[in-house]
Amino acid sequence: LESEAAELARAGEVHHTARAFHPQDLDGQVLVYGASGDDEQDHAVADAARARGILVNIVDKPALSDFSMPAIVDRSPVVVGISTGGAVPALAAAVRQRLEAVLPARLGALAAFAESFRSTIKAKIADAPARLRFWQRIVAGPIAEQVLAGKEDAARAELMRALNNDASAVRSEEHTSELQS
Q1: Are 28 and 52 in contact (CB under 8 A)?
Q2: Under a CB-based contact definition with an 8 Å cutoff, are residues 70 and 81 in contact?
Q3: DSSP structure string for 63-91
Q4: Residues 17, 28: contact at Cβ < 8 Å?
Q5: Using N-to-C axis directions, what is the helix angle for 128-139 and 107-115, rounded to 10°?
Q6: Does this model's pTM top 0.85?
Q7: What is the pLDDT along the chain (181 residues), one digit of tens a residue?
Q8: Backbone angles phi, psi at 71, to 5 degrees
Q9: C-alpha distances out from residue 18 to 22, 81, 179, Å
Q10: Which residue, 30, 33, 101, 155, shows the most beta carbons closer than 10 Å to its own?
């Protein structure tokens, strides 16, 4: 086992049996990954899985696989998947590495912060295009920067100020258009 898988086995999060593959190893399974790197064994795993109606992924061998696994950038709840359809997994990993470097580590915190205001903002700004413009200013401006910097209390206060100012502007626009009608 490579170090990461060995650590999972030591922690009891996966079961590892150090011996050659037996087709019966797949009995009762619903999903199979093969990563031996040995062509003969990879074919045996794929064939045994298919004979049992089990989906199989043989790492770096799309022809033997029923599905491919994307490289993932996880900033929950924001998740980005990168796939080459199994053609060049190393390319997907390289793209993932570049995205990891570009996407802020606290992007998920920004999404959660914004989500916590969704119903309030929808109630204050009923007009969908105006609400979209408001959100665009929030996620691309100083409020987002504050959240990404871990200053959520300051961001919350600033968002409430912006919301109150924007809601007043929206009400004024609605009142103006009512007067013009």
Answers
A1: no
A2: yes
A3: GG-S----EEEEETTEEEEE--TTS-HHH
A4: no
A5: 150
A6: no
A7: 888 989 999 999 998 888 889 999 999 999 999 988 899 999 999 999 999 999 999 988 889 999 988 999 999 999 999 999 888 888 999 999 999 999 999 999 999 999 999 999 999 999 999 999 999 999 999 999 999 999 999 999 999 999 998 765 554 444 444 444 4
A8: -80, 140
A9: 12, 32, 80
A10: 155
Calpha distance 77→110 (Å, rounded): 10
Instruction: Identify each DSSP E strand in the chain by its residue range.
Output: 31-34, 55-58, 71-75, 78-82
Name the CA dihedral angle for 168, 174, 176, 179, rounded to a multiple of 10 degrees: -140
The token duo for 10 is 């030591």
Tokens encoding 148:
């990404």
Coil, strand or helix: which one is 111? helix
Q: Helix 152-180 and helix 107-115: axis angle, to 10°?
A: 50
Nearest partner of 115 among 141, 78, 150, 146, judged by Cα: 78
Token pair recorded at residue 180: 């013009």
pLDDT of residue 18: 87
Residue with tokens 């980005």: 80
Q: Which two tokens stand for residue 52?
A: 């049992």
Structure tokens at 91: 């390319």
Radius of gyration of the chain (CA): 25
